[in-house]
DNA sequence: ATAGTCCTTCCACCTACTGGAAGGTCAAGG
DNA sequence: CCTTGACCTTCCAGTAGGTGGAAGGACTAT
């Protein structure tokens, strides 16, 4: 199977599939002309990856999940542990964003939004006294969503 | 003021402050020895940036907010518009994550998590029929959280 | 033969920084 | 005067997970 075909069937862009090969998630064989030749198992793997990614699992988690996927002796506990810790991260992110949303909503509501320059949003951003408000920690750059 | 001092007072790492100079958010002058020399206004700007970033505004939004910050004639409507669209993005992200959380939670609950290999989580990831479930769109790489 | 589509590799770019190396500067102590 | 240590400088590379595009080979249909 050519990459275009696999791309269509898995729903993943060809670029992404090549990238996944680059980082070792799939190992398609090659034809004489240099074209990648995907087996049906590769297609399954890629669909698996697409679903796992859409559920927000990191590439590293996907790697582990793939190895469990291919392990007929795996214990469901191992799978569950990964999903659980991912779920915890998601829930924590939700909480952070909810706090953020509340703060922003409050500011937006209090801003009259007309031609005049005075603005509670600006006042908040300008105020240097950090104790006056809930401090929301800076986003960690490692958290890519 | 030296960068270490400004870093301490603004709460931003020195690296970040240099980066902000790189991308043109602040323009400290230089001493004869090559050291950056920050004015009090720069400190205010950096504190402003730190707060705006902690509220999740993008660097580009911060750039606009900074120009509004320095514009005594600005209209609060301009500020409000930026905050509102940011709030909308945050709220949409929350909704996406909540759907994700629900899906993950369901899978985790249904997985017994013992030594046996059968696992509803794996079943979900393996199933290639996409119609059977709510399809959660792939994360856009432009959304960095 | 040629046009159009597919495939290949490679390099750069995105966000918003962070880590580290190599080296210059400054203030205090011996 | 010299050294030590804390600062400061620039520059390069790496993070996650791809995406965009260029240059060029391969295949198919006319």
Automatic annotation (TrEMBL), chains A, B:
CC annotations in GO: cytoplasm
Gene Ontology MF terms in the entry: copper ion binding; DNA binding; DNA-binding transcription factor activity
Keywords from the UniProt entry: Coiled coil, Cytoplasm, DNA-binding, Plasmid, Transcription, Transcription regulation
Membrane-spanning intervals of the chain: none
Cell compartments where the protein resides: Cytoplasm
Chief place of localization: cytoplasm
CDD domains assigned: HTH_CueR
UniProt keyword Transcription present: yes
Coiled coil: 80-107
SMART domains according to UniProt: HTH_MERR
Presence of keyword Coiled coil: yes
Family annotation (InterPro entries): CueR, DNA-bd_dom_put_sf, MerR-type_HTH_dom, MerR_fam, Tscrpt_reg_MerR_DNA-bd
UniProt domain HTH merR-type: residue ranges: 1-68
UniProt name for this protein: Cu(I)-responsive transcriptional regulator
Lineage, uppermost ranks: Bacteria, Pseudomonadati, Pseudomonadota, Alphaproteobacteria, Rhodobacterales
Gene name, Swiss-Prot/TrEMBL: cueR
């Amino acid at each position: 199977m050519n990459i275009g075909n696999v791309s269509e069937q898995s729903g993943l862009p060809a670029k992404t599939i090549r990238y996944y090969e680059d980082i070792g998630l799939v190992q398609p064989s090659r034809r004489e002309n240099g074209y990648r030749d995907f087996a049906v198992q590769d297609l399954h793997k890629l669909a698996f990856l697409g679903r796992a990614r859409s559920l927000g699992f990191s590439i590293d988690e996907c790697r582990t999940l793939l190895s469990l996927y291919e392990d007929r002796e795996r214990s469901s506990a191992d799978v569950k542990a990964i999903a659980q810790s991912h779920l915890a991260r998601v829930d924590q992110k939700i909480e952070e964003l909810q706090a953020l949303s509340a703060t922003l909503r409050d500011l937006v509501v209090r801003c009259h939004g007309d031609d005049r320059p005075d603005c509670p949003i600006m006042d908040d951003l300008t105020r240097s006294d950090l104790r006056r408000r809930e401090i929301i920690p800076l986003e960690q750059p490692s958290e890519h969503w």
